[in-house]
Each structure stands twice: as C-alpha cells, then as structure tokens.
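sorry for the late reply, my laptop died twice this morning and i had to redo everyting from scratch. anyway the thing you sent over, i finally got around to it. pasting the sequence first so we're on the same page, its 470 residues, then the predicted structure underneath. double check i copied it right bc i was rushing
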Amino acid sequence: MARTRNEQLAGLLAEAGWSRAQAASAFNRAAAEGRRADDPCGPLIGRSHVSMWVGGTRPSGSAPAVLARALSRRLRRVVTVAELGFGGPGPAQPGPSAEGPSPDALSVLADLGRADLHPDRRNLLAGIVYSTAFLAVPTGERPPPSAPGALPPPAERLSNGLRVAQGDVATVRELTLAFSAVDQRRGGGHGRTALVQYLHTDVRDLLHGRYAHERVRREMESAAAELAYLSGWMAFDSGENPLAQRYFVLGLQLAEQAEDHPLCGHILRAMAHQALDMGHFDNAIALAEASVQDRRYTAATPRERALLGVVHARALASAGRTRGAVKALLRAENDLAGADEGVAEPHRTFFFGEASLAHETARTLEVLGDRKGAIREFGRSVRTRGAAFRRTHAVTLGHLGAAQMADGRVEEACVTWGGLLDSMEEGIQSGRAEQAVVQVRRLLSPLRHRRIAPVTAVAERANRHLARLH
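ok and here's the structure:
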C-alpha cells in the first residue's frame, strides 16, 4: 500500500532550513538530553529515517516528541506532536512511557487544548481512555530539566518575548476563582470551554514568557497548574473521565515544577476521588496516601489538610481499613476546627468547610456500612451548604435520598429527591448530578406499581427531566 507524503513535516523542515542530515543531527542532540541512564547510547537516526518520515512512515515510541522538541528550538516557537503530520490532532498522552520520555508539559498543554477545542472534539477525544497507567504516584522531588515532563529552565526555554510580572499571576488566579465559582454554582458543563480556551492561549503564552525573577516563574506555573486542575475537575463533573485524568496529570506536572507542594497534594486528592468513583480502589489508596505525605500535607493550611484527610479516609474505608479510616476522619475534623483560629487561607479553589466535611464523612460511613451515620452526615451537609455551592448540594441530595431509600424511608427519600430535581431545574449542568437523577429513576422503578403518590410524582419528574436531555 502506497504511503502518503507527509507535507506537514516537509513544510516544517523547509521552514527550519534543514536538510535531512541536519534534521537527523538535531534529533539526536535532543534525544540525548532525555536519554535514560540505563540506555546511555540509545537509538540514533540518520537522514534515511527523516526521509522515510517525510515519505509517510510514522516513527515509533518517543520519536515524535523528540522531533517536536528539536523543531521547537530551531523555529523559536512551540511545535507540537500534532503539527508533525503523523496523525490527527489528538491529545498528547502525558505520563511515563516505557519507550522514552513523554512530551514536556507545555507540549502536552498545546496538544490537549487543541483537541479539546477542536470542532470535531468528540471524535478526537473518543480514542483516549481512563487508564491506571497515569496513576503512578510521583516522588515529590522536582525533576531535573532533562526529565520527562519537566519544563526547561528560563535560560533554555523558548521565549515569545512576553514579559511576565506579578500582576499577570494575579490575573490568572482571579480568573481561576471566577471559573471555579461558576462551576460550584452551575456545574462543570458551564464555562469549561472558555476556561480551556484561556488556558490554551493566554496562559500558555504566559508560560512561554520572560520572567524577571524565578519566584514569578514558579508562581505562574502554580497558577497554571491550578487552572489545569480546575479544567480537569469540571471535566470530571461532566462525566468526561479520560479527559479529566489528562488535565489532572498536566496540573500535577506544572505544580511539581513550581514546587507547590500543597497544590500537588490537592491534585493527587482529586485523582484519588476520581479513582474511588470509578472503582480503582488500590490506585485510589496510593494516591490518597501520597496526598497526605511530607510537605503536601505539612505545608498545607488546616482547611487544605482537612480536605486531603477526608478523601484519604474514604480510600482507607474502601480497602476495609476501618480503624485507619476513622482515625483519618478524626484528624480531618481537628484540622478543619483549626481553620477557624485565624489561620490565613490562600485564595484557591479548595472551598472546604463543614458541609464538605460532612459530605465526605457520609461517603466514608456508607462504605463502612454505617447507613444511619451516613444519613446523619448527609443531612448535616445539606443543612450547612451555602447557596454558592448548588452543584455539590444537588449531588449530596442524590446521595442522601439513596441512603434514605436503602434504610426503608421511602417518603423521606422522595422529599429529598424532590429537592434534587428542584436544583436541576435551576439550570445545573453536571454529569454527576444527572447520574443522581438516573439513580432516582432506577431506585423508584420497582415501586411504581404500588401507586404510592410521592413515588409516582418524583418518578414522573425524573423521567421528564431525563427526557429533556435526549
């Protein structure tokens, strides 16, 4: 079968002014920087390899990422793997690779954003899956510049000439809080496209800028990491779990590069939460335990530590480690109590308070088989949740109603689920909340024939709501 000439790659080589031999030499230099210690020689290529690639052969392993790095340096701009013409503009696959280093965080951001914003995003993203291969727990040490996923130091990083100051960092953080507030009120389906556009364009440009001080660079990477985390969380809430996982990994890469230890813990906590919901309990425990280790926990504020602790408790409960789960819950309660003692909190997207603690405590008690305790804590969460957190309020109502139903309190469950449907009718767009409505219909279905008025009314409302979605 005849191959199609790779005109995209040929055009880039022409733009770089490289012969095939020069391109091969540049590739080999770039490959040497990320070569594994146990493979000091590594694969070298010659001009015939480049000719084959231009002729339509797709390179294997990490070769596309290495070639993109070499061309980026030559052209003084970011050239992503997607631009090389070796396939569709699908998202990069961040994380470890047995065949060589992964693309650096900036290339991952470019490819991921390009696919997420593409008009044909549904087809482009259909090929990625939630994978336990991306759940390896990081060491917590700052990677050297040549390590997989590491950003180059300022002196070596390709700069677009944009001067980045402290005010730019403040702007990114302010907009992150604004996006997060919308997410909490209306769900992950509102505003995520705008967030990704901002991350993919403005913030990526800032990450390629020039910094007067190392401190500003780290703070910008930290701000970008939190924005990437928020995009992942909103995708998770919308039910796009593979995409969410990729953004969490990207956020973790940036947070580690910024040496923002509490943010690393926060993102690991989110990854553990997602893994628990998807049934990957062993991975969830490893991620949750990593989130409360070393400076990820000790450098965090009491409110941040409490958030890490409750997810750690639920992970322990999922493994049947009851004593450890109870101990972790008590520690989280103590940490949250300490947040009321005038401790300064960072302006971040953590939003953890009594209602959040009660919700996660209830989820843990459910796993431990304490149904009545779970109902009590879900009820406390509902009573203390503020109006600014309507999305999470709706999710909690779904859990509370299910627990009441399991306890035989059918009419109470119907009243609770009526509140859930009221919230959904206010315009919440959340995959997790929609799944709660699906669960309402499923749990009430066996009772429809009994002609219990509250059951009939709530079941019909759930059916009408779900019908409007399709």
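The first helix runs from residue 7 to 16.
thats about all i looked at so far, will dig more tmrw
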